[in-house]
Amino acid sequence: MADVDSPTLRIIAGISPTRGSESDELRRWLGDALAELSLTYYREGSREGEEEALRIMARRLLAQTITPRDLTSWAHRFITWDGTPLAAELIGLGHAYGYVDSVYNGHPYTGTTTADVDADVIAEARRLVGDTTAKSS
């Protein structure tokens, strides 16, 4: 489609997995296709794959295509406490949103606010992607 072609991409183009089902045939060819494109293949459920996905999502937050709460929800749902330790801080901050929401129930309070948690999530996203130009708040 973008002037990209390889033997394995042609094979993958011919695979028609049914919607909502896993395709063993597609999985069988995926690693080879990515190698032909000089892209890294991360085995499903691998620590390396989780860490790369976490960095991709952190970059999406920093590009403002998702919200801080979206990032923490994603980390909690897809990586969980059992996944890479790199996600632990974001998962904990996701719980902080719940705490702020339930304790203060929308009433002004002089302690931690949703904006404070947002700032912490953004700082953690910057750390994950190695951004040392973080703005001070």
Notes on the structure:
The structure is a single chain. With 137 residues, this protein is an all-alpha fold. Helix content is 59%, strand content 0%. It is built from six helices and no strands. The chain has helices at 7-13, 24-36, 47-62, 68-79, 88-104, 114-129. Helix 1 packs antiparallel against helix 2 (24-36) and helix 4 (68-79) packs across helix 5 (88-104). The protein is elongated, with a radius of gyration of 19 Å. The mean pLDDT is 85.
SSE topology sketch:
Layout: H1 7-13, H2 24-36, H3 47-62, H4 68-79, H5 88-104, H6 114-129
Helix pairs in contact: 1-2, 3-4, 3-6, 4-5, 4-6, 5-6
Number of helices: 6
Number of separate strands? 0
As a whole number of angstroms, the C-alpha radius of gyration is 19 Å
Mean pLDDT: 85
Concise synopsis of the structure shown:
This protein has helices spanning 7-13, 24-36, 47-62, 68-79, 88-104, 114-129. It is mainly α. Helix 3 (47-62) runs antiparallel to helix 4 (68-79), helix 4 (68-79) crosses helix 6 and helix 5 packs antiparallel against helix 6 (114-129).
Features:
137 residues, 0% strand, elongated
